Amino acid sequence: MTLSVASSQSFNVNAVGKIKLNTRDGILELDGVLYCKDIPGVVLSLGHLIREKFSISFFNHHFTLSNSSVTFNTQRRHNQWFIPFYNSPIRTISIKPLASTDSTHNVTLPNSSDISALWHKRIGHLSIRQLKLMQKSNAANGIPNIPFDDIKICHDCSIAKSQHRPVHAPSCQLVHQPGDLIVADLMGPYELSLNSKKYILMIQDVFSHVTVAIPLIDKSEAKNYLINWIRQFLNVTSYRIKTIRTDNGTEFKNNVFNDFLSQQGIIHEYSMPYEHHQNGIIERTNRTISEMARTCDLNTPFERLGKKKPQLEMLRVFGAKSYLYEHNFRKNFSPRATVGYHLGVSEDSKGWLFWVPEKKMVMKAASVVFDESTFFTANRQVGGALNSIQVRDLFDTSMIDEFNRQDKSLLISTSDANLHASIPSDYKEAMVSMEKVHWNAAIREEIGSMRDEDVFETIDLKEALKEVPHQSILSTKWVFTKKPDRYKARLVARGFRQIHGINYDETFAPTPTFSSLRLLFSNAALKGWSIRTFDVKVAFLHSLIDKPVYIWPPMGMEIPKFKVLKLRKALYGTKQAARCWWMHLKNILLRIGFKSNGEDPSTYTLDRDGEQAILWIHVDDGALTASSVNLINRISNQLNEYLKIKWDERIKGLVGISIDETDEGFKFSQRELIEKIINLSPSNIIAKSPLPTNCQLESNFSCSNMDKPYLKRIGMLLYVAQASRPDIAYAVNYLA
């Protein structure tokens, strides 16, 4: 059976049945309706409506359809009349398919629950409760006036609005005595402590509430410490541990720990992943110790477990200033005590733990005097209270001068920052800079040089701790510099954590004077000697270190966990590095035949078979002059056997001094440094030199502590005066 419409289109009729339309005027019930799947909407036939005994009337643009109970009204739009009804029928109806007249099939059309689901989706998956409130308060037009039914489940809401719903199942674990249930958890990571601990293993006996906190360096240590604690518990108390509960972390869920529990007959329970409440006892303990204390009864946790009350005689206020008796004072009038700050009670001896700033280490002591009213504080400078002043004091010119000096200091700091803006300050900054490739190559080159020079060896952390205390293992940082021809990265140890007598002794190393440098070039110009300048590559790394020094693996170097580096050579930044290099170089030069000058230990002379040579070296930059070219070649070849040296083909400069060779001799200049000094002044005012006749200057002692930019300029000018401009020496010394 087909249905033809006014547009000459034909549609297949799938079934005939009854339908109820929910309109704004009421329910319109029709019988003998043709069901066509391909026709969107509902088309009403006037002839069919008349046969169903509906009354129809047209007046102006209005159309009225009525039966015995309800009247439906509408207006003409685009030469058509529409009876507005809600999109879905309101109940299931029975229809008879045309293909089979023998059976009747139930076709379920959307009901009121489907309407609720539809509007729930239309308004951004709003809850039915909120939808009812909108309908009740008439918050928007177009919401149907029908009862909204609750939706059983919305797939989209279940996916997008899912929330954590803990399972509140009753616990079958009952505790009647200590050891019935032990709970454990790991806290951290935190900032590194003085002994490089950053995790805390929390263990608690549920019955007695005895809680133990064990600091750890790494998560992997948790299983060993927990095993040791269980053994101590079984040894000290008369109770057996029945169950231990942890989370699913690998520090607890591993073969070593599980095998131990199996041997002891202890049941291991796990909380579900992300269900922290299932191990809530220890989680609350982690959050606050005070809440744990409130869960106890009249007895303390220690008393419930050990049948005796805890001893508090050893407790002292944390951070209290303390005076530690020195047993090994050397002289009768030497101080008999060292100042420290209380950290806690020692676990393995009858005494306390103290942080001693003078020695930068944690010490144990028993003979101590405590000052529990004075505590360790940070080194902060806090301005004092303002005194009462008069209004006219606000216009004191000295205060204006002070503000001006502060402004100049800020300008100078900004200028310095701009000069070095392209140089990264640390490894992380270098790895995100625009020149990452160059800095990374420089790091690879430096690491390769250190490996070639056998600067360090990899050692187990446990072996290192047998030789030096944990706090003396040094951290490192990368220092980056940019030269005209290459990028340079240098690994520097943070030697300020070294302890005298443990990993360093002597630190003195002489440096040459500019007077000796000028004398060397003057002598060469006068006698017509040749001069060659040179640069010792990775100078410090050539010399053996004199004390056991360990460093943590630097960033950018792949080293296995729980490994440290033991230095074989003197790394930059260690306190003795300069001295070790000086001693190493001195021994090499003595073998070659040089002698150290008594006035300047870093200037060496050689006198052999009527030939003479002078060598001047400042750390790793040096100059060599000799009475013959052959002697220079022999000396350079001998030095190359011991050191990696880059010899300059022609003299360009040395230690920041530009050197130009002329017919009259050599010309020293420091143009870049002088321009930098001039640019430090925002006004670029250039003063006359020499000083005017009878010039008298007055010192301003009131601001000597704060006018650091002035002192900075004087220091730089002194360097220039000594190196290349002796003509300004008097003026600079006068200003200094």
Automatic annotation (TrEMBL):
PROSITE patterns: INTEGRASE. The keyword Metal-binding applies. It catalyses: DNA(n) + a 2'-deoxyribonucleoside 5'-triphosphate = DNA(n+1) + diphosphate. The keyword RNA-binding applies. GO terms for cellular component: nucleus. Gene3D superfamilies: Ribonuclease H-like superfamily/Ribonuclease H. GO terms for molecular function: DNA-directed DNA polymerase activity; hydrolase activity; metal ion binding; RNA binding; RNA-directed DNA polymerase activity. It holds the Pfam family RVT_2. GO terms for biological process: DNA integration; transposition. It comes from the Eukaryota. Keywords: Hydrolase, Metal-binding, RNA-binding, Transposition. Residues 174-343 form the Integrase catalytic domain. PANTHER family: INTEGRASE CATALYTIC DOMAIN-CONTAINING PROTEIN (PTHR42648:SF24), TRANSPOSASE, PUTATIVE-RELATED (PTHR42648). This is Integrase catalytic domain-containing protein.
